[in-house]
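FIELD: query
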Amino acid sequence: MPLLALACTYFGEKPRVEYLLAEIEDLRADYCVHSQVDLSALLIVIQRIEAAVDLQQQVLAIEADHALALARLGYCRLLQEGERLLKFTQQSLDINLVQLTVYCNLVQIFLRKFQFKRAESALECGRAAN
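FIELD: result
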């Protein structure tokens, strides 16, 4: 069921995703670790990062070498660090507006956070500054 809900997110079926998520929560205790990791992918896509981290940590407590759980946990940590990285990147721009590398970093941070309009804006600012 987590994969079905994940597919629904890609088709923009938000009400169905919410319905499935409620069903999943009711059944989650019965899921194997692989289904739990699939659920964590759904949580990432709907931007419930803390819940995804918690779930991955639960999986890793059961199966410490679960490669996909480790990869997803790493990705979540990258998303969480985005705010801190964004702060440093913005400070750099405040000092020197013509650093193309800084704009590239901003684009990557925004893309990882699914903030596509902000990524596009950073890209345009970088082009204009250089």
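FIELD: remark
The chain has two domains: 2-77, 96-129.
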